[in-house]
Design goal:
The complex is a heterodimer of chains A (109) and B (483).
Chain A lengths: L15 E2 L7 E6 L2 E6 L4 H6 L6 E2 L6 E2 L12 E4 L4 E3 L10 E3 L9
Parallel strand pairs in A: 2-8
Antiparallel strand pairs in A: 2-3, 4-5, 6-7, 6-8
Chain B lengths: L3 H4 L4 E4 L3 H12 L5 E3 L23 H5 L3 H14 L4 E3 L2 E7 L2 E6 L2 E6 L2 E4 L3 E3 L12 E3 H11 L1 E2 L3 E7 L1 H12 L3 E7 L3 H6 L1 H4 L3 H16 L4 E3 L2 E6 L6 E6 L2 E6 L2 E6 L1 E3 L2 H5 L4 E4 L4 E4 L12 E3 L9 H18 L7 H25 L15 E3 L4 E2 H9 L6 H8 L12 H12 L22 H5 L5 H5 L9
Parallel strand pairs in B: 1-2, 1-7, 2-3, 7-21, 9-17, 11-12, 11-17, 12-13
Antiparallel strand pairs in B: 4-5, 5-6, 8-18, 14-15, 15-16, 19-20, 22-23
Helix pairs in contact in B: 2-4, 2-11, 5-6, 6-9, 11-12, 13-15
The chains are: A mainly beta (109), B alpha/beta (483).
Chain lengths: 109, 483
């Protein structure tokens, strides 16, 4: 595994799938980018298997990537394209889901 | 035996389907009672025996998932599965409010009020967090989170993982990670080995649990996993995500490159519901936290409200199973139910629980949190990750004489006022207040709970229900609404 110590670039994944990789694939988008997850992945896992950021804080705008994974810290709220807000750690991926990690209308290219 | 449901209008509700809730339900069902079991998770087991998502193709055996606890996990899961036809089971359901004999719940975008005559709160625990600079960086998780990622998702929290803090979970997670093939860079235990050695006599009250702990440490050491004890966590650093963990060992500062950190200092009880139910609290020196009062059977100060499991004070999963049974027997007794052999059962449960309580004192001795940490926190370290309140803001408020009590400090600075309601920052704020004021932690106050105890999304589905439940929406304070 190669690592570049000088940059914690957000395009690297945070999570590593160690096992249980033989589940059915599910297609979804995160901020318009198509990604593939597996049935039973949480939205949080799906995002973090591709990048190291899940949301930005409301005040400083710092990146966050969840913290407790058990629905207590409330630090992984994201939005679905239809407007519904979800806690990424306790919502499972669905085929065709469109996840927005930035407030609606502020999606960056 | 009399069936209570047929003879009265009693409605028994259990919140939480972990080891305490499941064993309580089992005891009630055996007595002919049909309890309502409400659980926020989609499957029973709680955090400790959390199951991977159902029908998703997860294939690991219970032995792989729960190791030496596989038998206990399986027993809790299969007990629940067997009882399903005899229960009113409501998984995936958040209880966000409680008062005057009813619970406010939220499921699949819908609000629902659940009345109760008797309520068992078995809401479990989360990691006890004492922060270090950089703890809000992406890649820094709780130890519990690290375990959930592996158990319920088959994932590691990173490629190169540092596990830090203290408590039994530290070594268990390290063992589970290393065994699953994750790269554990180091275990940074803030307690010196001497504490763990000194606690041995008390820990031997539960010899098999003690032996498992020794086994994990031995297994890790034999595989060359780096274990540092008696260290101080200095800071996590990185550009928009964690890249290294720095700790101090004596006079030396050492840095370990990593892309993930899991940390925690034991567990803290989820007590918000007991608070809303009106239970009286007392400061518990062992847990270093305010806990709802209860008798040995689990009765609170409010008639009809009972507690069991880690939500009533940390004692672990085995104690939770016993306490769940015990509280259910107390409920049955209070309902006037005469079960055969109940008294013998009670005597045995009370003896087992007393023994675990002594073990628990030993655990706290072995894994005491780092108590003088608050005075070392730099002013620019975030304490409250929801509202982004740093230590300096809190210190200025305390030193200026504006606040010497935690709820006053919350009102003035918004610490603990965010979405998590102080679950992540409450312990740290209390430690900081104690360090700054010189008052014992028992005297800096108790962070009060408030409905909704977790954010309730005002989804389109819920808005459509406005006509049905206007009172409940009005009960959600403006600031806590999520849209």
């Amino acid at each position: 595994m190669t690592t570049n110590p000088s940059a914690a670039s957000a395009d690297k994944p945070q999570f590593v799938r160690l096992t249980e990789a033989h589940r059915k694939q599910v297609g979804l988008t995160v901020d318009g980018v198509a990604i593939t997850a597996l049935t039973g992945d949480t939205v949080l896992s799906a995002i973090l298997l591709h990048t190291r950021r899940v949301r930005d804080t409301e005040f400083s705008g710092e990146p966050r990537a969840g913290f407790c994974l058990m629905g207590a810290c409330q630090d992984c709220w994201v939005q679905l394209e239809e407007g519904e807000r979800i806690r990424a750690c306790s919502t499972f991926v669905k085929e065709g889901m469109h996840v927005l990690t930035r407030p609606a209308g502020a999606v960056e290219a | 035996m009399t069936s209570i449901d047929k003879t009265s209008m009693q409605r028994i509700v259990i919140v939480g389907a972990g080891p305490a809730g499941v064993r309580a339900a089992e005891t009630l069902v055996a007595a002919g009672v049909v309890p309502v079991v409400i659980d926020e998770a989609p499957r029973a087991g709680g955090q400790i025996y959390r199951q991977p998502p159902a029908d998703a193709g997860f294939a690991r055996s219970k032995r792989t998932l729960y190791g030496m606890e596989a038998g206990k996990a399986d027993a809790v899961h299969s007990t629940m599965a067997r009882m399903l036809p005899k229960l009113d089971y409501r998984p995936d359901t958040l209880v966000w409010g409680c008062g005057a004999g009813q619970l406010d719940t939220f499921h699949a975008g819908r609000q629902r009020t659940v009345p109760y005559s008797h309520l068992l709160i078995a809401t479990g625990a989360t990691d006890r967090i004492l922060p270090f600079p950089g703890w809000t960086l992406p890649g820094v998780y709780t130890l519990g989170a690290a375990q959930i990622a592996l158990k319920a998702q088959g994932c590691s929290i990173g490629r190169r993982v540092v596990l830090a803090g203290t408590g039994p979970l530290l070594y268990l997670v390290a063992y589970q990670y290393a065994k699953a093939g994750a790269q554990v860079e180091a275990i940074l235990d803030t307690n010196p080995f001497s504490h763990q050695f000194a606690a041995t006599p008390r820990l031997l009250r539960q010899p098999s649990t003690f032996a498992k702990g020794l086994y994990y440490v031995g297994w890790l050491a034999a595989r060359g996993v780096r274990i540092e004890r008696g260290v101080t966590l200095v800071r996590a650093t990185g550009d928009r995500a964690v890249q290294a963990m720095t700790y101090r060992d004596g006079d030396r500062e050492l840095t370990i490159p990593c892309d993930a950190i899991g940390f925690g200092y034991g567990l803290r009880s989820e007590t918000q519901l007991a608070d809303l139910a009106g239970c009286r609290f007392r400061f518990d020196p062992l847990n270093r936290a305010w806990l709802p009062e209860r008798d040995t059977a689990g009765r609170t100060s409010v008639p009809g409200v009972y507690l069991a499991g880690d939500g009533a004070g940390i004692a672990g999963a085995d104690a939770a199973e016993l306490a769940g049974r015990r509280a259910a027997l107390a409920m049955l007794e209070d309902l006037g139910h005469r079960a055969a052999n109940a008294q013998a059962h009670v005597v045995k449960l009370d003896r087992q629980l007393a023994n675990i309580a002594k073990f628990r004192i030993g655990l706290e001795q072995a894994f005491a949190p780092h108590l003088d940490c608050a005075s070392h926190w730099p002013d620019d370290m975030t304490v409250c990750r929801c509202e982004e309140i740093d230590a300096g803001t809190l210190r200025r408020c305390i030193r200026g004489g504006e606040a010497s009590e935690i709820n006053r400090l919350k009102a003035l600075t918004r610490v603990g006022m965010g979405r998590c309601q102080g679950r992540m920052c409450g312990a740290a704020t209390a430690e900081l207040l104690s360090a700054e004021t010189g008052k014992p932690i028992a005297e800096v106050g108790r962070l009060r709970g408030q409905a909704p105890i977790k954010p309730v999304p005002l989804s389109i589905a819920l808005m459509a229900e406005l006509d049905e439940a206007p009172d409940h929406l009005a009960a959600i304070p403006e600031h806590a609404r999520d849209e």
